[in-house]
## 1
Amino acid sequence: MAYTVKPGNPCESDPLSPPSLNVPTPCSNGNLSGVDFAIIINPWFQGVGADMRLDGGFTDRIPGNVPDLSRYACLKGSGGTPGLIFAGDGTTPPDYGKGEASETRWQVYGEGGKFAPGNSGIRTSYSYISAAAAKNSLIPTKLPCEGGFSDCDLPLDLANGLYKPYSIDPSEQISLTLNNYTFPPNKNYVILVDGNLEILGNIIVPNGSTVTFAVSEDIIIDKNVGETNINSSNVNVEGFYSAGGSIILDGTNGDCSASFDKRLNIGGLILANANLESGSLQNKRDLCEKNFDIPSFTGSRAVTGITQFQINKYYQSIKNE
C-alpha cells in the first residue's frame, strides 16, 4: 500500500490513516499528526546446495539488507556448489528482489525449462509408487502407530519396509498425523499415505537411512515445527516428501502483533503437485521485521534414496529370505 502525505500550508493527506482503520488523519496549520504506516518486507526462502523448481515462475524477493555473501536464492552446499534454479517455460526472468540466483547465477527458464514427465507421470507420486509396489507383489505393512493415525507415535525399533496407514484393507484411504520421530540408523522406508500427511514435530533421518513419504493429497508441516532462534540452521524435517496436492508450511497467518513464526529448515527433497493438477508449495511462515535479513524457510540437500530403488531393493530382500 502506498501512503502519500504533503506537509506545508495547506497540508494534504490520504483521508484515512491507514485506510483499514477508517480513522481520519488530523491536518492543522500545515502540520500532520497521527500518520500511521509501516514498511512491510514479505517472507522469503533460501536453498542450500539444492536444485529448486517453480514451473509457474520463480519469485523469491530477497531484501537488500541481507549480507552480500548470502544475498542469493541458493547458497553453496557441502559439495561446494549451489543448486540450479528452474523457473518454467515462461519468458519472464526469475524475480530475486535485491538478490541473485546464486554465486554462479545458475538458472533455467524459457523454452524447454518446464518439467515434462513421461507417460507414466511423476515417479514419486502416490499412484506411481503404489502401482510399482503392486507390480512387485509387495503389500504395504500396516503402519504401527501408538495413539492411532490421528496422533501417531512410531516405535523406536521400526523395521525396514513399505508402510501405509490402514485399519484392515490396504486400499483404505486414511490420513496420517505424525509426531516427532527419529528413524533408526541404516534402514530404508517408504511410507504411503492415501490422504493428507500432517507433521507435528521434528522428523530426523540419520546418515545411512532413507525415508520417502508419498502422499496422495497435501503435506502440512505444523507451525510449531521449526526454530525459535531464527538464526539457527538446525534441520527440523529430513527425508523425501512427495505430495499429490500442496506442501503447506503452516504459520500464524502473518499475525505479527503477538510474535513471529518459527524458521523452518528442511533437509532433503520436497515435491508438490505430483498429481500434476493444481498443487503448490505454500510458505506461510512470516518472520515479520526479521524478514529484512533472515529467510523464513530453508531447504538443503540431504542423503535420501531414490524411491524406485528403495522399493526394488526391499522386494529383492523379501525374495532372498
## 2
Amino acid sequence: MLQSLHHYDIRKTFRRLALIPSLLLVHLGSAPLAMGEGEGEALWLAAECGDSVTVSNTLAMHPEVVNHRQGRDESTPLYIATQNGYFNIVKRLLQCSETLVDAKMIDGITPLMIAAQEGHLGILEALIRRGADLNLTNAQGTTALMIAAQYNHGAANLLLRYGADPTLAKKNGTTALIMATNWSQLGVVQALLRAGADPNQRDALGRTALTFAAGRNDLGILMELLRQPQIECDSPDRLNRTPLWWAASRGHERIVGALLDKALLTSCRVNLNHVGLKEAFATGEPPQFVPASILEVAIKNSHFRVIELLLRSPDINLDIFKPLALH
C-alpha cells in the first residue's frame, strides 16, 4: 500500500512538473497553443498552490474548466482552494457563473463542509451567499453544521445564523448537539439549544446529549442541558442505562450530585433504583450483558464517593442490591 502511494505521489509530481511551461504561459496571460485537458489541471494546481493570477487568467481564457475534477477524491478547484483557505481564489471561482458551489467529492464532502471543518469563516460565508445548501449531507449523512459542532471556531454560529437545521441526524442518529457534547463544545451546545435543537433526541443506540455529558464528566454541558425545561433526566439507552447510571459507573461524583439535585429541586424524574445492563467479559467466552443497578455498579467499581451520595437519598432501595457475579 505504501509503495503504491509512493508511486502515486511520484506520478503526481511528474504531472505537475510537466505543467510548469503551460502554467507559466497562463500566468503571463498567454494562452498555450495546445494543452488538451491541461487547462483544467492547470486551474486545479493553481488553486491548490494559491496562485490567484494563474487562476484568474485560466478562467478568463477557459471558464469551462472551472469544475474540473482531479485526484483520488475527485476534488474541484473550489474545494481545494477552500480547504487551503485561499479566500481571494475562492472569491474569483465563485464569480464564474458555471461554478458548482455544491459539487460533492467522492465521499460526499462539499466545499461548505470543508470550510466548516477548517474554520475558514470568510470563505464559509461567501459560499453561503453564493447559494450553498446548508443542509446537504455526505455519505454518512453528516451536514456542515455537524462538522462545525465538533470545533469552537464560530462556524456553527455562522451556519445557524443563516438557517442551518440543528435537528438533522446522521444515518447513525447522531445530531449536531450530540457531537458538540461529545467534543465538549459548551458554546456550540448553547448556540444549538437556542436555535431549537432537541436535547432529548437519541442516536441509534438510544443515547441523548445528556447521556454523553454524564459519561464524559462534562459538568458545564450537563448543567446547560438540565436547564432546558423539556429535558428528560432519566432517558435510558438501548441497554437501559440512564445518564445517572453512566455517571455512577464511571465515578463522576459531580455529575451524580447534579442529577440528584435536579431531581430534588424540580419535577425532573431520576430513578435511583434503575437497573441497566453492564457488559461483562469472561475468559474464553463471548461478552454477555448482566443486570446492574446504579448502586451495584458504583460498588462494583469502588466509587466510594458516589456510593455515599446515593445512600444519602431516601429513595434508594437497598433490597434490590445483588452483587454482580461476572464468572
